[in-house]
Each structure stands twice: as C-alpha cells, then as structure tokens.
Amino acid sequence: MKDSIWLQDMTWEEVKQILDESLKTIILPFGSTEQHGPHLPVGTDTMVAMTLAEDAAQKANVPVVPPLWFGWSPHHMVLPGTITIRPEILAEIAFDIISSLYHHGFEKFILINGHRIVNITWMQIACERAKRELGIKTVIFDPAYMSKTITKSLGWGQVGHAEEIETSHMMYRYPDRVKIDRAIDNPHPENKLYSVDPSFEGDTLCYVPSSPKEMKDLTRTSGGTTGEPSKATLKGGKQYHDHLVSRLLEVIQDLQVDR
Ligand SMILES: [Zn+2]
Q1: 218 phi/psi in degrees, rounded to 5
Q2: How far is the CA of 137 from the centre of ligand 1 (A)?
C-alpha cells in the first residue's frame, strides 16, 4: 500500500497497482455537513466515517474514496452551517461513484454511514441498484448497528444527536475539534412509539421527520443537541472506535468469500 490509503492522494499508476495487488475492495465514507450542537463541528458525521475508514483501510490494505461531506439534513436547517442535499440526488451520486470505480475494476464496496438513520434510505437505494445493474458486492456499514452490543456497557444512553456517543468518538479522534465546555445536555424525551437506537428494544428503524417547531425547540433548549454529551469520555470513545474498526475488518474479510 502507498503512503496514504486515500484515493485522492494517489496517482493513477498507484491506483492501478492497488487494483492489481489488493482485494479489489474499496471503502466509501459518507457523512453530512450539519449542526452538531454548540460543542462539535458541523463536519462531525463525515469525520467519524473518515476515521473509521482510514484505520480499517490501513490494516486491510484497501483504499478509501474521498469522503462525501454532504447528506440529507433538512431537519437541521434551523441552525447555520447545515447543508442539505435531496436524497434522490445523493443516491445518484453514490451510484455514479460506485459505477466509476467498477469501471476501473473494483468489485466490492463498503459504504460507511456517518449520518445515522437519515442516510441509510438513499444508501440502500444506491447499493441495491449497483448490485442489480453491475453485479457487484456492496454493503452498508452503519456504526450505530455495528456498535449496539457495547454502547450500554460504556454507560451511554440512546442514539441522539451530538450526544455522548458522537462526542466521545470525536474526543478520541479529533480532540482539538471538541468544545466540551460549550456542551449542553438535553436528555431524550420519552417516545413509546419510535426509537432509532438499535441497542434499544424499541428500535423501529423508522425515520420520523421532525417538525420545524420541534427543531426550533431543540435549538432553544440545547443548541441542537439531543442526548447527554456530559457523559462523553475519551476512553469510551477509544473503545467504541476500536470495536468499530475491528467490525469493519470483519466485513472486509467477509466480502472476500465467494457466495
Ligand atoms: Zn452526527
């Protein structure tokens, strides 16, 4: 592998060499640019996808595509810095990225989702189309699902937004980007019908869009956070990160098995 596992750092000759020598597997980090409370940068979702991709890719000797810094974020437009792209456009972009790489010889694609349940919708559409039209292997790696067995043991609550999970991960991998003294806790309101946390029994894997009023209330009470960033720890962030990197390595290995 070259000095960098990022595709954008390689020459075409180096990409060709990787295609000749490696697993024909490639990782695509997808995130968002959206408000993450007063204490985390708007690029948080993309940054967490990038760091997982980078660490696993180095160990497995596979390249990583330049990240897509944009996701579907209409619900966070109440605060500045958020950029939202329509999901149908995102599905098309993802498909075009995959089909370009397939054209050059890549055969197995891992899409890392840094933007929780909201990105899954269009990523599934792109993956299904790529499988059907190109006959390739595609999988989605979702950190919330892939970490559901450990989050409770780390003392964390439900998946929210800019909560202790994302804050811990950022504290571990991007400590200079976390303004923990600005964080405001906003414990989850009880919702008996819908939960988007796979480690909770009530998980519905169902995205229920928030109303403008709900989002305005969120900005007033917590500056955009749902959850309890005060529970975040660097140690927990490391355990969470290491767990996800090892699961990602499992996924890379599993993709090499012919079925
Ligand atoms: Zn996030």
Answers
A1: -60, -40
A2: 27
Looking at this protein, which amino acid is placed at residue 194? Y
Ligand 1 centroid to residue 219 C-alpha, Å: 15
What is the pLDDT at residue 189? 78
For residue 2, what pLDDT is reported? 62
Dist CA 232 CA 224 (whole Å): 17
Instruction: Quote the ligand 1 centre to 162 CA distance (angstroms).
Output: 6
Tell me the CA–centroid distance for residue 254 and ligand 1, in Å. 27
The position carrying tokens 């749902």 is 226
What separation in Å is there between the alpha carbon of 206 and the centre of ligand 1? Answer: 17
Two structure tokens written together for 135? 């006959």
Evaluated on CA atoms 75, 115, 229, 202, the torsion sign reads positive
Query: For position 1, what pLDDT does the model report?
Result: 52
Q: What is the CA radius of gyration of the chain?
A: 18
* Mean pLDDT per 10-residue section of the chain, whose length is 259 residues: 88 94 93 98 98 97 97 94 97 98 97 94 96 96 94 90 97 98 91 79 78 87 94 97 98 90
- The alpha carbon of 76 and the centre of ligand 1 are apart by a number of angstroms equal to 11
**Token pair of 159, please?**
């998946």
How far apart are the CA of 189 and the centre of ligand 1, in A?
Answer: 18
Whether pTM > 0.90 for this model: the answer is yes
CB atoms under 10 Å from CB of 212, counted, come to 11
* Count of residues in the chain: 259
